[in-house]
Amino acid sequence: EFLYEKAKEAGASLTVERSSDVLRTLISIADKNQANRVVVGESGEAGAEFLRRLEKKLSGRAKLIVVPAVS
């Protein structure tokens, strides 16, 4: 509920999905919603390659914004 309320306050939408192909699902959601920005949380070094691939796939469609993790 907290994230939903924060998204609503910012005039954004929040989508929760389960998927075995996260990259394809994120691209599909962004395209379906004609998103010009996709915001994701930082996931450490293990997720860096995923974020590079996501940014490449979004190129020309939407800007990828990565929110840094708080230590």
Describe the protein.
The protein has about 70 residues and is an alpha+beta fold. The chain contains three helices and two strands. It has helices at about 1-10, 20-30, 50-60; strands at about 35-40, 65. It has a two-stranded parallel ribbon. α3 (about 50-60) links the parallel β1 (about 35-40) and β2. The mean pLDDT is about 90.
Describe the structure concisely.
This protein is of the alpha+beta class. It contains 3 helices and 2 strands. A two-stranded parallel sheet has the order 1-2.
Give the SSE layout:
Layout: H1 2-9, H2 22-32, E1 37-41, H3 48-58, E2 63-67
Parallel strand pairs: 1-2
Unreliable residue runs: none
Distance linking N and C termini: 23 Å
Report the average pLDDT across residues. 89
- Widest sheet: strand ordering: 1-2
- Which secondary-structure class do the elements indicate? alpha+beta
Sequence of secondary-structure elements = HHEHE
What kind of oligomer do you see?
Answer: single chain
The biggest beta sheet is recorded as: 2 strands, parallel
Secondary structure tally: strands: 2
Portion in helices:
40-55%
Number of helices: 3
What is the general shape?
globular
Q: In what range is the share of β-strand residues? A: 5-15%
- Please tell me how large the radius of gyration is: 12 Å
